Amino acid sequence: MYVKPENWKPSDGLTLEPNALKVVTESKDNYLVVAGPGAGKTELLAQRAGFLLQTNSCLFPKKILAISFKRDAAKNLNDRVEKRCEKHLAVRFNSVTFDTFAKGILDRFIHGLPERYKPITYEVLLDYRDVE
């Protein structure tokens, strides 16, 4: 069941300051969010994703893709959206790293590349979770 945009409230009883609430609920444009560590950027993105999914502003069956530099950031954002949305909505949100996104594109379309541009057969040998 979807919520009307005007009836949507932030998850977990969170109160957003007016500019953050505007970014989450009213924006049709792109915004640059600049803030220091711990200021709530990830939460803002999770609430925005929740708003788009819970109000069906991201029309079914469309999905939302978030791309991060670090694995833990991608997982953190994905976990927050899963926590705030019902399962049937959360599956429409995907948060990955740039590396994972690029590898996924290459794996999907490698057979469409001319031979001279195809990478040699490769296998990922290192699990980046093991790197400190």
SSE order and pairing:
Blueprint: H1 18-25, H2 41-54, E1 64-68, H3 71-84, H4 87-90, E2 93-97, H5 98-109
Parallel strand pairs: 1-2
Give the gist of this structure.
The protein has one domain (5-98): 3-Layer(aba) Sandwich (Rossmann fold), CATH 3.40.50.300. Helix content is 39%, strand content 8%.
Question: Could you characterize the architecture of this molecule?
Answer:
With 132 residues, the chain is mainly α. It has a single domain (5-98), classed as Rossmann fold. 39% of the residues lie in helices and 8% in strands. It contains 5 helices and 2 strands. It has helices at residues 18-25, 41-54, 71-84, 87-90, 98-109, and strands spanning 64-68, 93-97. Strands 1-2 form a two-stranded parallel ribbon. Helix 1 (18-25) packs across helix 2 and helix 2 crosses helix 3 (71-84). The chain is elongated and about 55 Å long.
Structural class: mainly alpha
Give me the CATH fold name: Rossmann fold
Order of strands, widest sheet:
1-2
Query: Can you identify the CATH superfamily?
Result: P-loop containing nucleotide triphosphate hydrolases
